[in-house]
Amino acid sequence: MNTPYRFIAGAVCPQCRAEDRIVANDFSVKCVVCDFEEFREDQKAPASESMPKTLAQPIRFLKPSKNEEG
Ligand SMILES: [Zn+2]
Predict the structure, then answer these.
(1) How open is the CA angle 17-19-20, to the nearest 5 degrees?
(2) Whole-structure pTM value
(3) What CA–CA distance (Å, rounded) separates 20 from 12?
(4) Which residues have CB atoms below 5 A from the ion given as ligand 1?
(5) What is the 3-state secondary structure (H, E, C) of 18-57?
(6) Which residues are CB-neighbours of 37 under 8 A, at least 6 positions away?
(7) CA of 34 to the centre of ligand 1 (A)
(8) Is the dihedral angle over the CA atoms 7, 16, 14, 25 positive or is it negative?
(9) Which residues, in sequence order, are bridge partners of residue 6?
(10) Which DSSP symbol is given to 64?
(11) Coil, strand, or helix at residue 7?
């Protein structure tokens, strides 16, 4: 089932820089000028548990100056 696209006021396309040409529905965001399209699976993830947890881990930057932990 497709939900209708709605324009996002003030949104600028990251690809062609067109303003007020970005439309979005519950599943994806796309540009009506160029072929830019981005899926919004991160906002509504019905099956997030199926994703490997190793990919969901945030990257940690180790500080070389602090070695007290561990
Ligand atoms: Zn565009």
Answers:
(1) 145
(2) 0.55
(3) 6
(4) 13, 15-16, 18, 31, 33-34, 36
(5) CECCEEECCCEEEECCCCCEEECCCCCCCCHHHCCHHHHC
(6) 28, 29, 30, 31
(7) 4
(8) positive
(9) 24
(10) T
(11) strand
The neighbour count for residue 67, using CB atoms within 10 Å, is 8
59: Cβ contacts below 8 Å, ≥ 6 apart:
none
Contacts of 13 (CB under 8 A, 6+ apart): 19, 21, 22, 31, 33, 34, 36
Residues 6+ apart with CB under 8 A from 38: 28, 29, 30
Rg, the chain, Cα only = 19
Digit-coded pLDDT (tens) for 17-67? 999 999 999 999 999 999 999 998 765 545 555 555 555 556 677 677 765
